[in-house]
Design a protein that fits this description.
about 70 residues, mainly alpha
Length: about 70
Amino acid sequence: MIIPKIMGKLQMQTSKQINKLRNTPGNKNWQSNYHDHFVRDNASYQCIKHYIINNPKNWDEDKLLP
């Protein structure tokens, strides 16, 4: 499938640039097993938009964050 290849390339290229700027060669910058979702209609778009806007407010409560 082509989408996973595109995502892999995007992750590789952005990680290289992030690590270059931070002087942290080889650091992992992406969460593994990302959740992808196709936006099929306005209701789906609104739900995803709401999640993106509001999710950072919950980070302090996230048990997976170091």
